[in-house]
Amino acid sequence: MMRSRAAVIAATLDLIAERGIAATTIEAVADRSTVARTTIYRQWDSQPELVLDAIGTMLHTPTDPDTGTLRGDLLDLLGGLADALTTSAAAALMPALMDAAERDPAFAALHAREATERHEVVRVAIARGIDRGELPPGTEPGEVIDMIAGPVFYRRLVSAGAVDRAFAQRVVDRILAAYTPHRTMQDGPTHTGA
Question: Is the pTM of this model over 0.70?
Answer without folding.
Answer: yes
